[in-house]
Each structure stands twice: as structure tokens, then as C-alpha cells.
Design a protein that fits this description.
8-stranded antiparallel beta sheet; 3-stranded antiparallel beta sheet; hydrolase; Beta-lactam/transpept-like
């Protein structure tokens, strides 16, 4: 089954979406304290910016000290969202793919300096020299020379064969289709936000592990952290409106709820770049684990490896009016931005994510073991402004500084 609409229309939609950035032992999810009621504040913001739903949580020392989900699952609808409603994370899943890569490094199956050619050369012969030489750390930090999504990449992601094979095979086929391109590192900063690069990382992880990325993210991240609502693809169960449904805004300004099926998310080939969904509480669990710098169970990777993932690897150029869901400035680690906000005392870990139907943002201060996550089921700059306002307000409210 293929998505509806012409190829040109689908490519246009995907171009808009992907410019958006497309952010041990089992352990119980963080305890939710009822002492901080942020629902009235979120309700005011949701109404001010005319969003269908808005959810946020604050995690301090591994405990969720404030959380709420307000609004409705569908714009203009009546079914309210709950704390268990699934929201889409978009590119905020890149840090999860980076963590899987860190596991492969710790297990000796990959090195940060492993090249695409070393890992995938037998499966994809004839790669350009520059593509073959791109390293895992360059791909994870968007500094390999692979550009931001362009027309040839969109043809790979979203074409009439995009749903005819398993995602693992589609990723190899996609890299093979692009293998003749020479990578070009721009002058100044080498940073170029690249979903394609994370797709390649996914293929490298799959090659050395022998398992699909989709299986690994459940077995190695979702299950150990106890993220019961976590899943892949559109948030809602097919045929049910049982989650915070994403929305598109048409050229005429009309709001359309995107319920299920291929049109409700990016193609599966892009899983490693960002097609994860989960509840705000489960997302708080992930954020809290990262805020704890890997010193709080479960031991997904060692604190030393997590430090590498969260550290600056490239400086990002200033981008005026970046699309919602993509970084504007600062620095970048592996799946994490490192940004010096004017409302925080020190640079913070952060990321934005959007599939052009939803928006997710988070900010983490490991020094305070503090994290804030904010989610909405609406796209665009207005939603980005609202989510950013909530993120700043909650961080400043609960920061110890």
C-alpha cells in the first residue's frame, strides 16, 4: 500500500517535514510527585497558542517532580489527552540511535572511527571514496560532508517502492542509490544537519549487530528503561484515536488530523533519524537517565561512553530562522545539541524534533541532574514558540541556580 497523492506532492510534504529535523537490570520509571501542579500553566499556554494538546514534565534527580498533559487528541475535538498518551519525538530519537552506536563501540563491534566503507563496503561496493571514508563519529555529529536532505535523498526516502521491503533492506538500498555522491565539507563549520547520515548509522549498527535497528531500540533502550508506551511510527493504533494525533497545516491554513498509515509519519527507512513515539512520562524517564549521566541504572552504556555522546564534537553555524525541529546555533555532540541559552548559566544539552505533524523539545542540565521535556501534537513556528516558552519557564522555575 502506498501513500495517497502524487509523487511531487509527497516529495514536497517530505521536503517540508525533513527540513524540520526531522531532537542491566530493569528500572522502574521515575516516581511522579503530585506536589507541583503545572496543568493550569500548560492550559493557558495551549489556549494562547491554539494548540490541540500540550504535555510537559520536569525530572530532578531521577524523579518526575512535575508533569501534566492538557488539551485534546484531535484539534477541535473533545477527547482529552492523558499522561499516558503517546506523542511523537521526531529527531529527538537521534540521541537514542547514538546510544545504540555507543553500545556497539563498547562491545567492540564498532569504533568511533569506523568508516562506512569498512562496515558496509561488502554490501555496497563502489561507494565514492569520500562516502567510504566517512566515520561513525562524523555521521553522528553531522560533520561528514553529507548534506541536509536534498532532492536525490527525498527520492530515496519517499518513492513508489518506499514500503515494499523491510526497513533494514531499504536502508541498504537507499545508501546504494546514493553511493556515487562525493561528500563536501563546507568552509568554516563542517556541520550539516543530516537525516541521511543517521540512516547510514542505523545500517552500520544493523550490520555489526545482525539485528534490525527497530528490534535493537526496543531490546536495548525501551525495555531496560521500562518505557511501556514507547513505539515506532504514527502514535495512534490503526483504527483508533488512542493517542495525541499529529496534524498538518494546509496551504490554505486548514488543519488536518493525520490519523494512521504511511501519511501519519516519515517513511520507515528513516527510523534511526527519528520515528519514535512515547508518553511524556516515558520521555521524562529517558531524559532523566541522560541527566544522571549514566550513573543511575540501567547501565545502557558506561558513564564514560555517555560522556563522549553528550560532549561537543562540532560547532554549529548560526542559522537565521531555522525550521522548527532543527538546531539554530551552538554546538553538537552525538544526537545532542549543546547550546548556551541566554536564560541558563551554563550550556545545556538539548534537541528539537518534528515530523512536520508534531513537535518535541527537551533541555538537560547534567550538573543539576535536571531535565525538562515538552511535547505537542501540532507543527510549525507557532507551536515551536509555545513549546520553547514552556521549556524555558519550567527550567527557570525548577533550576537550583
Amino acid at each position: 500500500m502506498h501513500p495517497q497523492g502524487t509523487s511531487a506532492t509527497r516529495r514536497t510534504r517530505l521536503r517540508n517535514a525533513l527540513a524540520v529535523a526531522l531532537l542491566l537490570l530493569g528500572v522502574a520509571p521515575p516516581v511522579l510527585s503530585q506536589s507541583h501542579d503545572i496543568a493550569p500553566y500548560l492550559s493557558d499556554i495551549r489556549a494562547t497558542y491554539d494548540l490541540p494538546a500540550l504535555a510537559a514534565a520536569v525530572v530532578q534527580d531521577g524523579t518526575v517532580i512535575a508533569a501534566a498533559a492538557v488539551g485534546t487528541r484531535v484539534y477541535g475535538g473533545t477527547t482529552p489527552v492523558t499522561l499516558q498518551d503517546r506523542f511523537h519525538l521526531g529527531s529527538n530519537a537521534k540521541s537514542m540511535t547514538a546510544t545504540l552506536a555507543g553500545m556497539m563501540v563498547e562491545e567492540g563491534q564498532l569504533r568511533w572511527t569506523s568508516t562506512v566503507g569498512e562496515v558496509l563496503g561488502d554490501d555496497i561496493p563502489g561507494m565514492s571514496d569520500t562516502l567510504s571514508a566517512a566515520t561513525l563519529e562524523q555521521l553522528l555529529s553531522h560533520s561528514s560532508g553529507i548534506p541536509t536532505d536534498d532532492e536525490p535523498m527525498l527520492e530515496i526516502y519517499f518513492n513508489d517502492n518506499a514500503f515494499d521491503e523491510n526497513p533494514k533492506d531499504l536502508r541498504l538500498r537507499g545508501i546504494d542509490a546514493w553511493k556515487d555522491h562525493e561528500l563536501k565539507v563546507p568552509e568554516g563549520s563542517p556541520f550539516q544537519y543530516s537525516n541521511f547520515g543517521y540512516m547510514i548509522v542505523g545500517a552500520m549498527i544493523e550490520k555489526v549487530s545482525g539485528q534490525p535497528w527497530e528490534t535493537l531500540i526496543f531490546d536495548r533502550i525501551f525495555d531496560p528503561l521500562g518505557l511501556k508506551t514507547a513505539g515506532l511510527g504514527p502514535q495512534a493504533t490503526f483504527g483508533r484515536i488512542d493517542a495525541a494525533i499529529g496534524h498538518r497545516i494546509g496551504t490554505d491554513g486548514a488543519v488536518v488530523a493525520m490519523l494512521w498509515g504511511p501519511a501519519a509519519d516519515m517513511p520507515p527507512i528513516l527510523g534511526p533519524a527519528g520515528n519514535v513515539h512515547m508518553s511524556v512520562l516515558d520521555y521524562a524517564s529517558w531524559a532523566g537517565w541522560n541527566a544522571g549521566q549514566g550513573r543511575r541504572g540501567p547501565a545502557l552504556v558506561t558513564p564514560e561512553t555517555l560522556h563522549v555522546i553528550q560532549s561537543v564534537h562540532v560547532q554549529t553555524p548560526v542559522r537565521l530562522n531555522p525550521p522548527p525541529g532543527t538546531p539554530g546555533t551552538g554546538a553538537y555532540g552525538f544526537g545532542w545539541g549543546v547550546v548556551d541559552f541566554d536564560w541558563a548559566d551554563t550550556p545545556l544539552l538539548t534537541h528539537n524534533g518534528s515530523n512536520a505533524m508534531n513537535l518535541a523539545r527537551l533541555v538537560i542540565d547534567p550538573a543539576q541532574d535536571l531535565a525538562v521535556v515538552v511535547l505537542t501534537n501540532f507543527p510549525g513556528r507557532t507551536a515551536d514558540t509555545a513549546v520553547g516558552e514552556v521549556m524555558q519557564h519550567l527550567f527557570q522555575t525548577y533550576s537550583r541556580h
